[in-house]
Amino acid sequence: MSEKLWGGRFSESTDKLVEKFNASIDVDKRLYASDIQGSIAHLKMMAHEGIITDAEAQTLVAGLETVKGRIDRNEIEFSDTLEDIHMTVEDALGKVSGTVARKLHTGRSRNDQVALDVRLYLKDETQSIIGMLKDFQKALVTLAADHTRTVLPGYTHLQRAQPVLFAHHMMAYYEMIKRDVQRFEDSLVRVDVMPLGAAALAGTTFPINRQFTCDVLGFGKVSENSMDSVSDRDFIMEFISHASICMIHLSRLSEELILWSSSEFGFITISDAFTTGSSIMPQKKNPDVAELVRGKTGRVVGNLMAILTTMKSLPMAYNKDMQEDKEPLFDTVDTLKICLEVYTRMFPNITVHKETMRSACSRGFLNATDFADYLVNRGLPFREAHAAAGKAVAFAISQDKALEDLTLDEMKTFSDLVDPDIYEFISLDQMIARRISYGGTGYDNVSRAVDQAKEELNLT
Ligand code: ARG
What is the reported pTM? Predict the structure, then answer.
């Protein structure tokens, strides 16, 4: 007979290569605390229902706590022979508590056990990611609050478009992260479901009490269908999907930080502690942190493709393919967390070059729309005003001038509606101040948005 916990029907021992191939312990050992927590709840429930005695439950709970301490202290050696964390814990419990440990697995399967472990783990990690997202929002809002009067070009197609406040630009990311928080909070409702008791796929013949286990573990509800409970991983797909969207937001911010810290833009300087040098070019100071966040977005999106493709077309119920769910999940958790942590620390170390940003607004005809708006205010239909302003721009380009450098007479050749107050009207500060439509870059709007965000984040 094989030595394995499942070895009863086997007469040959497992091929060594198969053992290595089959094992997930290197990856799923991370679940040991959840696994033990789940087993303790299972034991309590079984004692409560008279499936095992109170004395047996007490011995085994104490035994599991000892096992946890040993794993905490790195005293347990993980080996492929024991395949995964579930069998490793059960084997270690046997060594601590003796043969009574063989009762632990009554009325459950590794299939519902692993679903439980991952849900416990992910509930916890989702909550800590939500906390980290809020910390990062605080960093964004803190920087925004310092720049409610700092003007820079707003871009479309990476061409200068209209002036905006730097705070407004930062608050755009605040909004994106806010939705990321909402997505993770919403997904928690679906993670917070207790699958234990589904057993292998069909439920169990033992008189278990799933609600009791659910209450001990603090889950919101018990899962409904035993086959679904052990065989879907949509909560993992959903988490990685939300993480991918969040990383894509961070990658867009990264791209801007990289551009802005180039000599071509010169809008920001990232402090030495958050940049690195070149081994050959002595002058280099590279925005590696931002580049890595941008690059790691690829990993996370890759993880999403991995889990989706693994789950595609799997017949019900559990299939071993699903053991492949953990690497992409864990890698996503680790990657998202470190990216958020490093950005939260880097943000206070960004110096914003207000003057450079401001002077970048003087080239690129950021006031062309306002020139047209001026004419509209004087009765010209917008399309005609647009054409007149376009001609004025073309003329200014031919003269290598900005719009505000044209003389009044030159301007009048494009529309006789122009008066001397045009110069004030198309000045930078006026352009910002007039954008009072709700959600626009007007000074009051932006200050209000920053104040509201501070309130939301309890930032004073
Ligand atoms: N290591 C396995 C996994 O992560 C646990 C479940 C194994 N179940 C089984 N019947 N082989 O998927």
Answer: 0.94
